[in-house]
Amino acid sequence: MRPRVIGLFLKDREFAVKLVDYWSRKAPQYRYRVYTKPEKLCADLASEPMYLLISDEEGYSALAPREALFTVDRAGRLAALTEGGEDPGRLWESRRIRGVRKYQPADALLADALGMRERLFPTVPAEKEALMIGESRAGLELLVPEEDERPEPKRVPEQEERPGTGASRVDGYEGTVFGVFSPIGRCGKTRFALELASQCAGAGPTLYLSLEMFTDLYGRLLTSGGEDISDFLYALLEGTLASEMQEAARACGDGPVRPVIVTAAANPEDVAEIDEGALAEIIRYAGKAGFVTVVLDIGSSFARPLEALELCDVIYAPVTRDESSKRKWRHFSEYMRKRGRKELADRVVTLLLADTGDGYDGEGLPAASEALSTQVRRLLWEE
Length: 383
Fold this sequence. Notes:
Elements: E1 4-9, H1 13-26, E2 30-35, H2 38-47, E3 50-56, H3 57-63, E4 75-82, E5 98-101, H4 106-113, H5 117-120, H6 126-133, E6 176-181, H7 189-200, E7 206-210, H8 216-222, E8 227-228, H9 229-238, H10 241-250, E9 260-263, H11 268-272, H12 276-288, E10 293-299, H13 305-310, E11 314-319, H14 323-338, H15 342-347, E12 348-352, H16 370-381
Parallel strand pairs: 1-2, 1-3, 3-4, 4-5, 6-10, 6-11, 7-9, 7-10, 8-9, 11-12
Helix pairs in contact: 7-16, 9-10, 10-12
């Protein structure tokens, strides 16, 4: 899938270049172009569609004589930088142009221009804000168990035991779905999930799916042609997911035993569109292609974590010992119960991870420390 193009046509070229330099590092799934002349912009638009154009009132006024070129199929979204984010009015007859506040952090500016600000930077009602930021509330027990109180985790069955067991919570899938989720940041979720997938691959074809947004993992795999979940979503909509999944499964037979890694979405807005039905369908197609294990790295930014967790046979939630971590987990557990998901909350296995390490392997993927590898091995294979 070709990267989507974001064009910037601004009088202040230095400002545009600084934005592109930052976005290229933070959101490398897009390809960025800076324009100073309308002729060059229009010429490029005629040869290749543009996902988003960011300009200002002066720029759109200069382009107005050529607005017929900027159809929805050629220029999908139009955003104008304004002082307060107000819509710039009817600069063009044929298209509405979205107003975006110019003076705001670069991350928020891009999200705003993409129409994603409500998803990435939500306005939280006051009564829910405490639940998100981890303020303490009376009457909530600490749900992070001490090490000797942890529930016994489910072991991965041997490959020959999996077909026909009917144990999966996803109808039509006969393998095992692991979920890794935690509302706590910087607790080693990604390294743990990747190591979990790597060790499961020793028992049979394993698919690792990341549901995070704006993760470092996607950028590291971008140059190596790694799959991302946007590819699978588009294939599902177009009816070609079976062949996409078969192609992914063939990678399991090449070289050392390792999981097939499907990284964070190339277009983060796609993550917000993933619901339980689409995710279950992807898992079913994975089973048809021969994947006996699916590891869902739900991370902490996925908009529908409870829906994703309901699909998982085994759920691991990395936590840390600090008080903030305990409060966040306590409140998330209470949230699950308030939503009628007590059975789901009871199935979660909280983990205090060993030192996860901070290195990367030869392909630029986060590498687990020896201590973390040992911990995962004991979870999966040892009584």
